[in-house]
Amino acid sequence: MASSSAGIVTGLVAAAFVTIGVLAHQASVTAPADLGPAHATVSPAPGAVKAPRDRRHPDALPAGSGTGERVVYSVDDDRVWLVGPGNKVRHTFAVTPGSVDPAPGAYTVTSRSSRITGSDGVLVEHVVRFTSAGGVAVGFSAAVDDAAAKPDPDRPTGGIRESRADGDAMWEFATIGRPVVVVR
């Protein structure tokens, strides 16, 4: 019986070391430098630098927003870019943010819903979520009645509203796992 107990303890110790090794590896993995750090806080870091813009082309993709196929969202410009192969902008459009902004950084699309009631009580469609901030889910959506969003500053909402046409484009493009880059 004593050797059986020793074998169990040895097995548990070995399993603990494997678990620690896996966790240490996960903690050391980071997003590519060109996408910036991953964050999920309520507001951008104080003094965060705004991504440079082409003043002659205000709708141009922000410099420093990464490479490859991705969604780029500027919290300062209230604009989204859907970037396809070859770093080519497939579609860009203005949005109306909720009262909670995601921090600048790299994220991925984590869930989608075809139609739900938003946190503000509005029926929305083509919901594409990519993070949470302050306990509030943050993602893109379009009001089914295509009404302009009027966020209540006293109520934390993470819905970034787009028109129904832009919501259709987002829904087609932003599948689960698609990178989302948030810039100032």
Automatic annotation (TrEMBL):
Question: Which superkingdom?
Answer: Bacteria
Q: Where is this region: Disordered?
A: 40-67
What's this protein's name? L,D-transpeptidase
Protein species of origin: Streptomyces ardesiacus
Which lineage do the record's taxonomy fields give for this organism?
Answer: Bacteria, Bacillati, Actinomycetota, Actinomycetes, Kitasatosporales
